[in-house]
UniProtKB/TrEMBL annotation:
Entry coiled-coil feature ranges: none
Residue intervals of the HTH gntR-type domain: 1-55
Annotated source species: Quadrisphaera setariae
Pfam families, per database record: FCD, GntR
Name of the protein described by the UniProt record: GntR family transcriptional regulator
Domain of life: Bacteria
InterPro entries reported for this sequence: GntR_C, TF_FadR/GntR_C, Tscrpt_reg_HTH_GntR, WH-like_DNA-bd_sf, WH_DNA-bd_sf
SMART domains in UniProt: FCD, HTH_GNTR
PANTHER family the record matches: GLUCONATE OPERON TRANSCRIPTIONAL REPRESSOR (PTHR43537:SF24), TRANSCRIPTIONAL REGULATOR, GNTR FAMILY (PTHR43537)
GO molecular function: DNA binding; DNA-binding transcription factor activity
UniProt keyword annotations, A-Z: DNA-binding, Transcription, Transcription regulation
Keyword Cytoplasm: no
Length: 200
């Protein structure tokens, strides 16, 4: 609900409402909320309780630069890929991206792109790196949920989005880590902040 944008920044989260909407009891809900708090997706404020985190420009910059640094580390550790079978997860995610682009399902395409990047990071064979990256990805989804301007008005064409990821996989398959790092640098990050003249 938070990552889809169904809950707005600063919105108060009550146990009564969430247990009813999600159909779960309070103990697993409280555990989930503790995890969300640890990952920075919700905040607990005095006299207000839990609320959806409000991100600043500094927050977004930190999330995106950390994500980039983790991907670069994964490439340094995981490329060249000695066992071609380890690329199957990347290929499967890319194939899913292609299907979702054909169906013009932007939301499903973005989800598949997250899977692609997770598969890329997994090439490092580093469990703690995978866990750190998964946490950062969830925070990046919050960046996307907060900014409908970028998602709906500036997001690149779906086919172009798939082509960028296909190109990245092709470079990974060459086995040259420096070439992959160079491609990641131009692969780029979409801005999750609206231009100054578009912000309320």
């Amino acid at each position: 609900m938070i990552l889809s944008g169904a809950l707005a920044e600063g919105e108060r989260l009550t146990e009564e409402r969430l247990t009813e909407e999600l159909g779960i009891s309070r103990p697993p809900l409280r555990e989930a909320m503790r995890t969300l708090q640890q990952e920075g997706l919700i905040e607990v404020r005095p006299r207000r309780g839990a609320v959806v985190t409000t991100l600043t420009e500094q927050d977004v910059m930190e999330i995106l630069t950390l994500r980039s640094a983790l991907e670069r580390l994964a490439v340094e550790l995981g490329v060249p890929v000695t066992d071609p079978a380890r690329l199957e997860r990347c290929r499967a995610a890319l194939a899913r991206m292609e299907r979702e682009a054909e169906a013009a399902d932007r939301g499903a395409l973005v989800s598949a792109a997250y899977d692609f990047h997770s598969a890329l990071v997994a090439l490092a064979g580093h469990g703690r790196l995978d866990a750190a990256y998964a946490s950062v990805q969830r925070q990046q989804r919050l960046c996307m949920a907060r900014n409908l301007y970028t998602r709906e008005n500036e997001y690149e064409d779906l086919v172009t989005h798939v082509k960028r990821h296909r190109r990245l996989l092709e470079v990974v398959e060459t086995g040259d880590p420096q070439a992959v790092l160079a491609e990641l640098a131009v692969h780029g990050e979409r801005s999750f902040l609206a231009p100054p003249d578009a912000r309320p």
